[in-house]
Amino acid sequence: MNKIVEKEQFSENVFKLVVEAPDVAVSRKAGHFVIIKIGEKGERIPLTIAGSNPDKGTIDLVIQRVGVTSHKLTSLNVGDEITDLVGPLGKATHIEKFGTVLAACGGVGTAPMLPIIEALKKAGNKVITVLAARNKELIILEDQVRQFSDEVVIMTDDGSYGTKGLVTKGMEDIINREKVDKSIVIGPAIMMKFAALTTKKYNIPTEASLNTIMVDGTGMCGACRISVGGKTKFVCVDGPEFDAHQVDFDEMLMRLGAYKDEEVRAFEAYMNN
Ligand code: NAD
Ligand code: FES
Fold it and tell me: Which of 34, 220, 242, 255 best tests ligand 2's pocket when mutated (most atoms within 8 Å of CB)?
């Protein structure tokens, strides 16, 4: 059982929970994630760790309320407990001094990006972050991102904040202006597909942090299977970060949608209860 000690609402459907998890708080590195479960028979979902406080023994989780489990999780309050939380899982982000790094965040993908840009900045990189969302209301963690970025470019689909346009426009404007040595892209799968196509045009090595369906988180069940450079990989143990130019995003998108009907039915049943 892991107690919730703080709760903050970022936007209509995005929440931050600060959760007691002392072992995870001490050992986690940028890129790691946890798998949580609400209730004995609950679904298991992966959540990237957005930050931690080893002294207080807490980790930060940012959750977008979309399906049954994320609704259950975000309806918990300070003092409530998460039934199960395992981690840190996955491989930590490979951090070195690359030079100029372009970090592209799409919507909720900003949360897993935060510890990565912090580590990149501390390693001496120049970090340029594109912070993109559908509208101003959905831009999250801007102050924290600014703390670890040399420059932040805000993009909104509707132009309500920053420059109007998708994350890929912001990326391309930067790439056309200065030499970028490395890029990291995190957000919805469709965004990472097009962000990867953008950097591929300019031969910029790019990593994407993938957020697939997961069950066991140990490489046994196959739920998180993807193809990278024609080879089968498991996001839970081989990732979550992969060479974005090698990931088969179309296959990933198809697998992400495989349980849509069941998810809709489960959600309707949950809301009618
Ligand atoms: P969203 O749909 O609001 O998109 C965010 C931004 O991504 C957009 O503003 C746009 O700039 C860009 N984008 C979207 N589609 C694009 C396209 N076709 N081409 C170029 N750019 C595009 O995102 P959201 O609602 O905040 O995110 C929801 C999704 O993100 C969920 O599916 C969730 O699973 C995923 N997610 C991924 C991670 C991860 O680690 N990769 C972490 C959290 C959430
Ligand atoms: Fe089961 Fe990755 S979650 S193999």
Answer: 220
Task: Determine which helix (DSSP H) or strand (DSSP E) holds 261, and give its type and residue range.
Answer: helix 260-272
Going by pLDDT thresholds of 50, 70 and 90, the confidence category of residue 83 is very high
Please work out whether the CB of residue 14 comes within 6 Å of at least one atom of ligand 1: no
Query: Which of 99, 253, 122 has its CA nearest to residue 188?
Result: 253
CA of 209 to the centre of ligand 1 (A): 12
Q: pLDDT (tens digit, 9 = 90+) per residue, 120-163?
A: 999 999 999 999 999 999 999 999 999 999 999 999 999 999 99
From the DSSP assignment, how many helices (H) and strands (E) are in the chain? 9, 16
Whole-number pLDDT of residue 267: 67
Ligand of minimum distance to the alpha carbon of 223: 2
Q: Choose the CATH number for 2-89 among 3.30.559.30, 1.10.8.60, 2.40.30.10, 3.40.50.20.
A: 2.40.30.10
Looking at domain 100-256, which of 3.40.50.80, 3.40.50.720, 1.10.1040.10, 1.25.40.10 is its CATH number? 3.40.50.80
